[in-house]
C-alpha cells in the first residue's frame, strides 16, 4: 500500500512549485523586457492575472521585479540585474565551448578549433584534431589573417571597425585590395551567419567558420572546421555547415545570446 504524504512533504512540494512559478514569471519578464503589462505577462505565462499579480508583489518586495508608477508596467528589478551580471561574469567561452567543440569533431571527424580576438588578431585557443592518419592541424596560439582566412573574415564581419582597422589596413596594403572590396562580403557573412573558403589560406584545405555571440550580441569567438578539399566539403548548405551552425548557436545560447528558433 502506498505511503500517504505527510504535511511536511506536501508543504515542501508546494514550495518547490511556488519557486518554479516564480522563475517562470522572471523568465517571462526577461523575454518581454524592458517592460510589460500585467495582462500581457499573464497571457505569456498562461496563468490567471490575479495569480501572476500575487507573485509579482513578492518579486517586487525582494527586488527581482519593479513596477513603473507612470505606466503600471512591470520589468526586472535591481536584484535580477545583479544576478544576471554575476552569471555573465562567470561565463568563460573556452569552458562553455569545450564539449560542443569535441562533439562537433566527433560528428564530422574533421579538425575543429575555436579562436578569440587577441591583440594580434584571430588567435586559436583550443583544437580538437580529426582522428585519422592525415589531419589538418592548426596550432594553439596560431594567429590567423583577418582577410585571408574564414576565421578572420568572420571576425572582420562582426567586430567593430575600430578593433580591426589597423590589421585590416596592413593586410589590404599587402594584398593590393581596398576596403570596398570587403564591404559586401562582410554584410553577406552577417546575413548568413557563417563563411566558407576553398584553399584561401592553404591550398587544398577548405574551412567553414561561424561566430559565437554573447548576451549583448557581440562576437566573443569563432568556431571553425577545416579539412582537406578531397574529403571535406565546405558547402554552406551542406550537413557540415548545419552542424557547425548548431554548435555555434548552442555555445552562443550558453553565453546568454537569445538564439532565434
Automatic annotation (TrEMBL):
Domain HTH iclR-type: 16-78
InterPro entries the UniProt entry points to: GAF-like_dom_sf, HTH_MetabolicPath_Reg, Tscrpt_reg_IclR_C, Tscrpt_reg_IclR_N, WH-like_DNA-bd_sf, WH_DNA-bd_sf
Source organism (scientific name): Pseudomonas alkylphenolica
Example of a GO biological process term: negative regulation of DNA-templated transcription
SMART domains assigned to the protein according to its UniProt record, in alphabetical order: HTH_ICLR (SM00346)
Gene Ontology MF annotations: DNA binding; DNA-binding transcription factor activity
Name used for this protein in its record: IclR family transcriptional regulator
Gene3D superfamilies named in the record: 3.30.450.40, Winged helix-like DNA-binding domain superfamily/Winged helix DNA-binding domain
Domain IclR-ED per the UniProt entry, residue ranges: 79-257
A Pfam family: HTH_IclR
Keyword ATP-binding found: no
Keywords of this entry: DNA-binding, Transcription, Transcription regulation
PROSITE patterns: HTH_ICLR (PS51077), ICLR_ED (PS51078)
SUPFAM superfamilies referenced in this protein's UniProt entry, alphabetically: GAF domain-like, Winged helix' DNA-binding domain
